[in-house]
Amino acid sequence: MILRIGSSWPRLPAVVLTVAFGVPSPQAADASKATGQQLAHDVYKGNCLACHQIPGDPSAVSLADIGPPLVNMRKRFPDRAALRGQVWDPMARNPQTVMPPFGKHKVLTEEEIDLIVDYIYQY
Amino acid sequence: MKLTSPNLIAWPGVGCMQDLARKALSCPRLQASIGSRTTTSLSSFVVLRLMLAVAVLCPALGLAGPADDRVQLVHFFEKRFPGVPLEDYVYGALIASPGGRHQYEQIMEFPPFLGDLEKGKQIWETPFHNGATFANCFAMGGRNVVGTYPYFDNASGKVVTFENAVNACLRTNGEAEFAYGDREPMGVLTAYARTLSDGMRINIRVDSPGAVAKYEAGKQLFFRRIGQLNAACAGCHLHNAGKIMRMEIISPALGQATHWPIFRGGEELMTLQGRFKRCMEQMRAVPYGFDSEEWNNLEYFLTYLSNGLPLKSAVFRK
Questions:
Q1: Residues of B in contact with A89 (CB under 8 A)
Q2: Closest C-alpha among B237, B275, B315, B207 to residue B77
Q3: Does the complex come out with an ipTM higher than 0.85?
Q4: Which residues of chain B have a Cβ shorter than 8 Å from any chain A Cβ?
Q5: Contacts of A68 (CB under 8 A, 6+ apart)
Q6: Least CB-CB distance to A105: which of B9, B230, B247?
Q7: Domain boundaries, chain B
Q8: pTM of the predicted model, to two decimals?
Q9: Each residue's pLDDT tens digit, A79-100
Q10: Helix (H, G, I), strand (E, B) or coil at A101
Q11: Nearest-CA distance from B280 to chain A in Å?
Q12: Looking at domain B65-318, what is its CATH homologous superfamily?
């Protein structure tokens, strides 16, 4: 699909293009590229459900109560960058945290972190 | 020892005798006697000031040590799990799951790993080439001894684990030593040998400067963040004990060292150091290795924390 929007084309952020193409569906995801939900649930990637519950996602099966449930994310993190920072290096906000530094220790790539943040930011 | 490095998780609680001093201060009778300043109350006033001074100076005086650590740990868990008897901590994560505990008791009536214990018994009782047996190497024929391991050996300056003692026995009797970490023969042998000490109160001594140094080294490792996942043992087994990780309850550090080996699913034999290995791998850290100084010191520290609790040999875990 070609977007003809004149001179603003090169400056459009990637997320707008994604929205224009349609919201990614977990079931219909491209096999070579995991979705934020898949990455969050994957025990070798985000493994978020090891410590968090995500009550808003019925497929998120977890009894974990080590971290707070991922709800009201936009209210708790009005600045998306703050949420991203929390995933990237949680020790910055809490030196006593048990949450791994997913970005700082390269557990996840920067792109994977963005996908996961987008996923949880909707709850 | 102050745990202030950013790489170390903090020790819970107030520290030293400050907690006790504060509790003493809140005692109404003591407050009344301080207020009236009679002859008898003056001495109690002096005692109280002395206690406070000591409490403040405690770390510098080196009075905060293993005994104090253990008392703090017990207080910490008493608050975390109110009403759980101290003896129950040998059941690990099961203290937070009455249903799990019930299932465990049922399985332990007829445990599925008796065959492995029988193998261990064969090894324990089979004489060496010189006619001696393992029983000859240990006091009381090996009955009620395991609760004193690990101990600090002043001569060698090292912590000696029960597996070390098994190999020392083999060595002095001209036999080949067993590999540490192997399921057979070391795993099944120690699984059986520990049944001879079942119920014995853990009694680890840390009573020399050398011993304290090893204890503190083990404690450091317990509180140190390791691996790609940046986790410290204390993060989970102290601060989040009783909480649920995915579907499993995290076990508390108190009582943790009492109940080994475990038989996962009734079949997979896992010793305490085997669990260190699994945990370090799960935190994406390179494991130190069986019989490493780091793990022996950690085992020394952990077992000391369980002093007074009954040893539970060879238990089932799911």
A1: none
A2: B237
A3: no
A4: 6, 9-10, 228-231, 235-236, 239-240, 243-247, 250, 284
A5: A52
A6: B230
A7: 1-64, 65-318
A8: 0.81
A9: 999 999 999 999 999 999 999 9
A10: coil
A11: 14
A12: Cytochrome c-like domain (1.10.760.10)
